[in-house]
Design goal:
Layout (H helix, E strand, L loop, with lengths): L9 H11 L5 E2 L6 E2 L2 H7 L10 E2 L6 E2 L2 H26 L1
Antiparallel strand pairs: 1-2, 3-4
Amino acid sequence: MKCGKKFAEQEILDAHTEKHKGDKPHKCRICPKQYHFRADLKRHMFVHNKKTNPYTCTTCGKGFSRKDHFKNHYLSHERKAALYDKKRNLRES
């Protein structure tokens, strides 16, 4: 299977090709999630450990184990606020 992506190093291409095989040998013991790579499973396990949520939303208090998930969540509050302001300004004009 080809997806059209190109890589400068054969090792990186080989790792990427593994994703297309469909085999996900690394299974979470807590939920049904499965991963191609052990590192992805290891990162996922932080979701199940409530003690490892260092990123807390100051708007709603929700905690996140991953910075990228926290950032996306926080931006959703900003988008909602901007949409609210836009609607309010339209009503006032």
